[in-house]
Amino acid sequence: MTDTTQARLGKGLLSGYPIFYLQGAEESRMKELLAEQARSHYGNDQSLLLWSVSRGFYNQTGVITEPITDPVAALRHIADSPRKAFYLMQDLPALLADDPRLVRALRDLYQELAGRDTYLFLSYPELILPESLKKQIFLILLGIPTEAELIRHIGQIAEASAVAVQLNEEWRYQCAVAMKGMSLDEAGHLITRLIREGKTDLNTALPEILEEKSYALLKEGCLQYINKSVQLDQVGGLENLKEWVDSRRSLFTRQAFESGIPLPAGILFMGVSGCGKSMAAKVIAGAWNLPLVRLDMNLVLSGAYGAPEYAFDHALRVAEEIAPLVLWIDEMENSFGYDLHGGGGNNNIFASFLTWMQEKPPTVFVVATANRIEKLPAEVIRKGRFDQLFFLDLPTEDERKAILSIHIKAAGGALDKFNLNLLAAVTKNWSGAEIEQVVKAARIRAYQDKREFSDQDVVWNTARMVPLSRTMEEQIKQLRLWSVNRATPASKKAEV
Description:
Elements: H1 3-15, E1 19-23, H2 27-42, E2 48-52, E3 56-58, E4 64-66, H3 71-80, E5 86-90, H4 100-112, E6 119-124, E7 138-141, H5 147-160, H6 169-178, H7 184-196, H8 202-218, E8 223-226, H9 239-247, H10 254-259, E9 266-271, H11 277-288, E10 292-295, H12 297-302, H13 308-322, E11 325-329, H14 333-336, H15 347-359, E12 364-370, H16 378-381, E13 388-392, H17 397-410, H18 420-426, H19 432-448, H20 455-462, H21 468-471, H22 473-483, E14 488-489
Parallel strand pairs: 1-6, 1-7, 2-5, 5-6, 9-12, 9-13, 10-11, 11-12, 13-14
Antiparallel strand pairs: 2-3, 3-4, 8-10
Helix pairs in contact: 3-4, 5-6, 5-7, 6-8, 9-11, 13-15, 17-18, 17-19, 18-20, 19-20
């Protein structure tokens, strides 16, 4: 149970509300919350009674005390009973829309329970309240499990499985952080599986946890967990960017979070298409050892997950719940920008995003990319929302050599058999993505000829590909002109 939920419940009780609405899906947590609060309020362990339409009233041990399954009769039973207790009626809100008698019974009960020290709690995952009940019912949102709850739950499972010694405090903390956003039930099933499979080493357990969380994110629709990060030594060039990332590595650690030191809020990448903006998002996540979650704005705006404003707000709230993380928003000018004919993006989403960037928790680091920065409103790129604006240009000669080396080795080539000076020359004004593709094409050509690939295969393919710098020459010149004195070059040198 979160401290916020506890405090909210305490406020409702002190205010004298007789009827509460617990919105959330984790019924076991609700029962623990109310059992703990009832014990504190009444001084005994018998003051929580539960009800469901399938069982009637039953106690915490599951014993049915009154087999009253009709909801109106059940409310009448609570009104007539002299017993002081907490009553939890599960899923009752789902019945309100089709039964005006039930709505009337709840309004009557509100009057009858006033001052009697007996309280009714309605629970349901969604908020379903008729207008006529909104003023009488005190709403409590059951938030996601906190790190403390997850650590305690992991400890209970470890004790029951007799592996508590292996799963020390640091193990439990790191797993709890990785599990942020999962329910206690989901976390419990996952820890149980890891213990049974013997995957208790952190290097094994953490990838398993993140993989499981990626499936949980699929339920949220617009968020996607990216399970492939990129380490700094896998990047050719971009030295200024790598230095910036490396210098802030220690800020996203447990010690930094607990110290309260101000954390960077986000970074914006703009530049030539194919020059590593998307890769840079993966680099940050890999360097800081944080999960990378992509917010798919196409899905947000599609309406497939409700109104775009709702889908966007929901996605941001989920991101907050599963933090710390790197939240990646790709090609944001298409979502928040303005077209050449004076039209705009979704103004409501744009306003929500600006407000959220100011108010968001520091453990959500935003990485945004843009190909056409001039389409973004000035409010997005001003200081205070993003810590840094990097311009990623076409790679320099030394960067092309580094990129070629990385991809040649990845393709199984022996570097001493390749003339990197020659290849860097023939790929002048090529993007990193284009260099990667030409090396792959060279590898395919050699495989089809049943021989090892060489620099001549690379040269052969460069003559048959037209780089973006040639087809989009004017647009690239405009980008470079815009970036002068406006953005920090990601590379040490600007020449290509």
